[in-house]
Structures are given as C-alpha cells and as structure tokens.
Specification:
The chain is mostly helical. The chain contains five helices and three strands; from the N terminus they run ααβαβααβ. The relative contact order is 0.14.
Length: 119
C-alpha cells in the first residue's frame, strides 16, 4: 500500500486500496484512464439480477467449481409494492425459474446461494 501511495504521490481512495490489494502484479505501472489491470479477487458476491449472466458465462469456462468463495444473493428482484411478506411471496412466484436456476448452478459449482425467503 505504501508503495502505491509513493508511486501515485497522494492518499488513496477506498476503491483504489481495494483494487491495489487485489492486483495480479502489484508493481505494474498504474496510470489513471490508460492502465489495464489483472485482478486476483479473494471473494465473489453476486446479486440475482446480474448473476444469471455471470453464471452462464462461467459455465462456458469448463471449470468444475469456483476458485474462490462465491455467493449469489437473491434479493434484487424483489419489488417493494405492498408490504414485505406479500412482496417476497410475489417475487418468489414471479422469479421462481430464475431462483431455481441460481440455486442449482450454485450447488453444482460449489457456491453459496442466499434464498430470498431465508435472507
């Protein structure tokens, strides 16, 4: 971290600290707006609305399981319209196919799944 501060000549934002701590090559040159970086995440957390596409892409990678702890949280497809329990029940019915897919793909590849009825 001190090395990055020295290189950039200023204090780092929280986002910069997170990214720098996960760089594949910590000593690579960093130039805002022009550097490309390879990252090594230590955890992946996804939400249901975008996880579907991420999992479909992962499935084409030919891997047997996730490489780092991974979770999918089913809570972004719930629309607040009436009240909590009613909205949750409506979302569970409306998005049943999505939730079933996410739950099964998480089980297949060793990821955690946060069921909307439990979270």
């Amino acid at each position: 971290m001190a090395n990055a501060r020295t290189k950039l000549g200023r204090q780092l934002t929280y986002a910069e600290k997170v990214l720098i701590n996960h760089l594949d090559s910590p000593n690579q040159p960093l130039e805002r707006g022009s550097s490309y970086v390879d990252l090594r995440p230590d955890r992946v957390a996804m939400q249901d609305a975008t996880a579907q596409m991420a999992w479909l892409q992962f499935m084409t990678a030919g891997l047997d399981k996730v490489a780092v702890p991974t979770t999918t949280h089913a809570d972004h497809l719930i629309q607040a319209k009436v009240e909590g329990k009613h909205d949750l029940l409506t979302a569970s019915k409306t998005n049943e196919e999505v939730y079933d897919f996410l739950e099964s793909v998480c089980a297949k590849y060793g990821a955690g799944f946060g069921n909307p009825e439990v979270e």
